[in-house]
Amino acid sequence: MPDHVSRYTKRGAVTRMSTYKVALIVEEMDQSYQSSILSGISSAAAEFSLNISVFVSFSGSINPDHEKGEFNIFNLPDFNDFDGAILLTNTLAHQNVVDEILERIKAAGIPAVSLDNDIPYLYHVGIDNRTAMYRITEHLINAHGFTRFAYISGPDDNPESCDRLNGFLEVLHEHNLSIPDEFIYRGSFRAPSGRHAVDHFLSLGCDLPEAIICANDVMAAAAINRLTDAGYKVPDDIAVTGFDNTYNSHNYHIELTTVDRPLALSGRLACKMLFNHFNNMPQDRSVILNMSTRFTESCGCAHNANRKLSEFRELNYRNYMRFEKSQDFMSDLNKLSVDLISTDSFEQFLSYLKNFTKKFSPEEYYFCLCDNWLCDADIDELRPNKVKSLGDVTEFTDDILVPIAYINGVFCDVPKIKRKEIIPHILDNQKPGRVYYHIPLHFGDRCLGYMVICNSKLPLHNSMFETFCITLSNSLENIRKVITLENALERLGKLYATDTFSGINNRNGFVLESEDVYRQCVEEQRDIMLMFIDLDGLKKINDTYGHDTGDKAICCIADVLVKSCVNGEIFCRFGGDEFIVFAADFTDLQAQKLTKDIQNNITEINNSGKNPFTLSASTGYVIAKPQEGEDIFNFVTDADNVMYTQKRKKKLSKYLKG
What we know:
Blueprint: H1 3-6, E1 20-27, H2 32-45, E2 50-57, H3 64-71, E3 84-87, H4 95-108, E4 112-115, E5 123-126, H5 129-142, E6 149-153, H6 159-174, E7 184-186, H7 191-203, E8 211-214, H8 217-229, E9 239-241, H9 247-250, E10 258-260, H10 263-278, E11 286-288, E12 292-294, H11 309-341, H12 346-360, E13 364-370, H13 377-380, E14 399-407, E15 410-411, E16 417-418, E17 435-443, E18 446-454, H14 463-497, H15 507-524, E19 528-535, H16 538-545, H17 547-564, E20 570-575, E21 578-584, H18 588-608, E22 617-624, H19 634-649
Parallel strand pairs: 1-2, 1-3, 2-17, 3-4, 4-5, 5-11, 6-7, 6-8, 8-9
Antiparallel strand pairs: 10-12, 13-14, 13-18, 14-15, 14-16, 17-18, 19-21, 19-22, 20-21
Helix pairs in contact: 2-10, 5-6, 7-8, 11-12, 11-14, 16-17, 17-18
């Protein structure tokens, strides 16, 4: 093994085992390039004793918070727990994300294979992009005599994109041809770039190019469609070329001149290189695959478009079946979306998702949530001078909840797992060849969790799968907000009804709790009891020990009422150092017992010796049958008068400790 590979493979040869665990990093797996490579990896995994964990993000959003939420899935794996890795870093839209992943691979010291991007310290499978684009451009000049070109590139920070552009420019330079900067459009390898590029070229108001060379087939097909919409014929008016040969996947209405590259073979070779490394088998660090140019209809070489009718029939049938499956999936997805929109509880959400899961019968499906996904940090932010930190909601938590675990047709109850585990360890002695897709669940940059899918009928390589993931995430966030709002309302209700100083009811809470019972007593002419309690000597306590100690004395009376009123009595802090207690169907004997319990509990506090003061309170109560139109607080005055009579009889001179 080359030294520049072994430097970052501190494990050396992995101890021989039956199955190796490999992490795969990819973005936008619904694109033909990624899908073809993943197909090759999936078909080769069992042969080379690999189980693959695919970590997938979907990008292309103009919302930076959404992008952060997507890329967070790459932070889920601890590469120290994997035997190797396969990287499609050329599919990742942000170089800083790529750099961070590569640093973690280095730190873990595991062997990794980079597909297409040649990273010197990793194994590499790729093609000569520069030469391939060179041949395409040279053909257009030599075979068709074109001299005016436009070019639709991929991202500037993508090595493959740069190599292809350099190959194109090299040919122009050799033929003493130039191209204005405005005729080189920097795209994203996605279809919108093809359309936008054509709109840009048409807006320049000068002679149009004779040929538009595109850095991949997806942008080329979109460019052809946009030219057709604008009234131009391809190739009669403008020739167009692509790169990757994904015609069979997309069935463009004109066969593209392109570069045929063995993408599935790239995936297979990545698996083989890791297997060779694990087993100390000698191999080259880098493998460059052969590619071939296909000159056909879109550049004017129609004589090469010699597909047989049977091939087109097979292609049409394959596309029809793909369309039919997409329609079925869209129908099921629409139904799920409608169900989830009407969902306002997490239990109902799980029920709908379980039904959806059974329909697509994956061998394994795990719906995993951060244990703080329901955190109400938003409520904390409502508090004065409270600043909310998002650090705990934008990352995966150490503990992961698994509310849905579907394995071989059975839903399993799974306790929470550790983040390092990623999925529950339920199946033992797994055979190699399993491919797990890990997809992020998030709302903006708020991390909610992730899903894991293994061998499912779900069309994972279809763009609608991304819609499915977004639907789940949005619905989950809606439920989180509903629950958070309910919690907020409950808190506000408590603030409205609770005396925040003593922790018991305030007047509002007292009215809310007592009004129904009091109304029934009025209607049914049942007795009520209203007791008034007044803390003795609060002013002297404040003057002697300070207001903080006086406040403690008030809270002590509240504690006494909590401990004494255990038979359905309703009580509150009436104001200042005054409290009231209400009860229905109380006899005089019961009221006397409650009075005694209150005094006994006051004595117990005094005997504890915890306070510098001697706690004392005067009580008075009335028992009466309330009449229609008579307010409950009318009885407060009567009880207060009784209490005041009792207070005058007491000697207040010794309620403080000496």
